[in-house]
Amino acid sequence: MSVILLLIPLSVVIAAGFLGAFFWAVRSGQYEDTATPSLRVLTEEVKEPLRENLDNERGS
Amino acid sequence: MTTAFTPHPLRDLRGVDSAGAATAVGCFHCGTACLDRTHVRGDRVFCCLGCQTVHELLQEQGLGQYYTLGESPGRRREESNGIERYAFLNEPTVRDRLLDFADERRQKVTFHIPAIHCLACIWLLENLFRLQPGIGTSTVDFSRREVAISFDPGQVTLSRVAALLDSLGYPPDLKLSDLDSRRGSTVPRRLWLQLGVAGFVFGNTMLFSLSSYFGLDGFSGPSFQRLFGVLSLVLGIPVVVFSAADYWRTAWFSLRQRRLTIEVPIALGIAALFAQSVFEVISGRGEGYFDSLAGLLFFLLCGRVFQHKAFDRLTFDRDYRAFFPLSVIRLARGQSAQNAPVVEERISLGQLEVGDRLRIRHGELVPADARLLQGDALIDYSFVTGESEPISRQTNDVLYAGGCQTGGTLEIEILKPVSQSYLASLWNQEAFRKEKDDTFNTLSNRYSVRFTWVILAIAAASAVFWSLTDPERGVRAFVGVLIVACPCALALAAPFTLGTAVRVLGRRGIFLRNAQVIEALARIDAVVFDKTGTLTAASHGETRFSGEPLAPEETTSLQLLAAQSNHPLARRITSMLPGLTGAIPRVEGYCEKSGHGLSGRIGGIEWRLGSAAWLRCGGVEVPASAAEGSTVQVAREGIYRGRFTVSNPLRPETGPLLRGLAKTCELALLSGDNAREEARFRELFGLPATLEFDQSPAKKLEFIGAFQSRGRSVMMVGDGLNDAGALRQSEVGVAVVEQIGAFSPASDVILEAARLPRLGELLRFARTSLTLVRVSFALSTLYNVAGLSIAAAGRLSPVVCAVLMPLSSVTVVAFAVAAVHWVGRRAGLGPVLETNEGRS
Questions:
Q1: Contact B555, B545 (CB under 8 A)
Q2: How do the domains of chain A map onto residue ranges?
């Protein structure tokens, strides 16, 4: 059973790591605007057509 | 509303014309119908040089993706502004108050840009660094229509950044109120952190307590129990000190004010829980109640976050400064030679001094009380005073602040500082000085007063009862009662019920300042309406022509003639007549006398449009029966031809709305306009209603006060700055806006004009929501009674506590949310908004 003495602090440390991550996320403003990031990902998907578009532009 | 100006009439004509033509092509950049093919690049057609320039700039910089993210995502620019328009931003006094952050190498600014409307806007604005060296990151907040830009002041100035945005078709909206502190996020970061800590501790202490929940204490042994207890104690301290900090503070504050708010029994419960747990751990009797303690705070803080989440992009506390521009055009005073050319300069409103001469263009505001020096003033005060017709002013007349010039350019001389003008003086009234939110008088606080006394009585009684036989059991019963009675579920009932109600309404275009507004709404028994802009739509009037029907070429002539003028009545006539067809004839000998009328020759025929006096002045016999007011008389070749009648129509369903409200509420109408339409409104409002006309903003405020002194709970429905005092004074101020996000004075509710007929349903929904809060209270009290009966017997154990607290909280919250949604769907509040803008 003495392995618990090792496991318990370990689990607390891991959980504290997640708490730290949460603190970082809040402090860096990730909870302030939740609407724009959901739109921003859509703009990232169309990176490839950008190049095509440029090529067309040069061709025309 | 006067803030949304219709475009220049001549452009209207062109738009109508080309839309009707079969060959019309939408501009590749902004989608406006193109008149001709002057601006073409490849197979792409543009409506104007501005659009083409922006397009070419974007293509050169490799930002062509802008056009793949949305169809014709650009915005046509009304006028092109050079960098000099923003030069005033470099003034240290303006710049320092506008910047969010500044040091030598980096400055950060947040601009409000109403033109942000789609995916492509976000993408372009976040790629600004590719267009201008010196700009670092730029981040768009879509729901607030804001962009935060950081830049290197060594490479680029603030005015350069603003001018760049303007040149792309995203002019920043700079208002006087931007100089003051920016509003923070709706949910404070600290609250998120408190919630995080409580959640973290809740999870971990529950793990530690698992063995005791399942009666495994014997298996794991007393040494583990000791270890778990100490660990829980260590984790519990940050919860009590940090997560519960707001409860300690509020409870202490309300005790000092000799009030019993809901926070007092909560703080009492937390204190009892913590004291009992510390005692148990230190004396080695058990692990304490730290899991329940952390869970309790976790749920309570969840409720707070839920309550705080409101509508990000709406501001409910705007005053006149949010209506005023940040800058004005000052004419540099000729100091030496009389013939020295007058120089225009943009200055910030703060630099304005008495005696300055300003140039006011069409559509601009008079920023302070001023004297007219030059130009035909036709001032639209509808937003400020409620008068629906613009007023003509002569040279040397005084123009009051807040009026909007329609027509030509004016020169004015400032008489008073901005803050002492007629309009600003309204904000010095007493009603604006006191805090409106009466947070003490909420339903849950009234309930908690009784609740707290009952709990204390039960705790004392059980302590005394058990102490007679077993003193230790007496103490345990006393603490146990306080622990169980901690009104967690009770404290969650109101935030979740009312918070859900606020959200249900927000999805349907009715935005509430906070959850307490629902309680105030439920108590309303008198409704006061403003007329112009609220019951009548100021912008889309009905225009009728009476007289012999007009021939097509006559229509064309009248339309062309009216299009020459910026007078609102002329613009109404222009927009009412059908689009131009065929060859466009020329207007000759055009002449306009401000406040009277206009005349001109088209195809050799002389036309006169205007007041009866204007026609008589031209030698026309005008029939006496023709009523004055919002009419435009027409004469052709010196012979009376007929008249246009322009009326402000009521919004649809106004009749049913007023009849429905009259059943439960006293009605009144307050108008800044004259009594010309009294009969029409008397019929609508019915006999018992009070109708008052010619009301100044201060009088409106007093009128509401008089209603309240008769014991009425008043809802004021208005739209303009002239209603600001009344909106503030009333229990619930409802601001009606044509478009969500447009300027509205400080209010409790912001209502889309299209939802105005739903006002009766809104009041009913508020009352039902309040009933649901009471039901939730009853439900949580039931749990308390069950818990109390265990605790009063002195048999409370950590397991019972750990089960009872989350169970009661979760059921109450689930009931509240489900019930409000169900009621909301049946309340007849209108359809849910399609966009995600109402949600947050």
A1: no
A2: 4-59
pTM attached to this predicted model: 0.75
Q: What strand order describes the sheet that includes B370-374?
A: B344-348, B327-331, B357-360, B410-414, B370-374, B398-399
Q: What is the rounded average pLDDT of the residues B136-158?
A: 87
The full set of domains in chain B, from first to last, is 20-69 (no CATH), 83-174 (3.30.70.100), 189-309+438-497+767-838 (no CATH), 325-364+369-415 (2.70.150.10), 542-647 (3.40.1110.10)
pLDDT band at A57 (very low <50, low <70, confident <90, very high): very low
Q: Which residue has the tokens 């001023």?
A: B370
Under 8 Å between Cβ of B168 and B119 = no
pLDDT digits (tens, 9 = 90+) for B223-250: 777 888 888 899 999 999 999 999 999 8
Q: How many CB atoms lie within 10 A of CB B607?
A: 22
- pLDDT for residue A49 is more than 60: no
Sign of CA dihedral B668, B673, B675, B680: negative
Residues 26-55 of A with CB under 8 A from B: 26-27, 31-33, 35-36, 39-40, 42-43, 46-47, 49-50, 53-54
Rounded to a whole number of angstroms, the distance from the CA of B758 to the nearest CA of chain A is 28
In a 13 Å sphere around the CA of B266, the CA atoms on its Cβ side amount to 28
What would the two tokens of residue B103 be? 């040091």
CB-CB neighbours of B664 under 10 Å = 14
A19 touches chain B (CB under 8 A): yes
**Cα(B308)–Cα(B543) distance, integer angstroms:** 46
Confidence of residue B609 (pLDDT cuts 50, 70, 90): confident
Judge contact between B711 and B695, C-beta under 8 A. Answer: no
pLDDT digits (tens, 9 = 90+) for B85-130: 787 888 787 788 788 888 888 888 888 888 888 888 888 888 888 8
Token couple for B814: 């689930």
B699 vs B688: CA distance, rounded Å = 21
Which residue in chain A is spatially nearest to B220 when comparing CA positions?
A1
pLDDT for the residue B815: 92
Task: Compute the nearest-CA separation of B301 from chain A (Å).
Answer: 15
Mean pLDDT over B706-711 rounds to 88
Q: How far apart, in whole angstroms, are the C-alpha atoms of residue B361 and residue B788?
A: 72
- Looking at the predicted complex, does its ipTM rise above 0.90? no
Tell me the CA distances in angstroms from B598 to B594, B691, B813, one per residue in order. Answer: 8, 36, 66
Give the residue from B65, B43, B61, B41 showing the smallest Cα distance to B51. B41
User: Cα dist. B783→B689, B780, B787 in Å?
Assistant: 48, 5, 6
Task: Return the pLDDT at B671.
Answer: 83
Do the Cβ atoms of B68 and A49 come within 8 Å?
yes
- Find the closest chain B residue to A16 by CA distance: B200
Q: Residue B683 pLDDT more than 80? A: yes
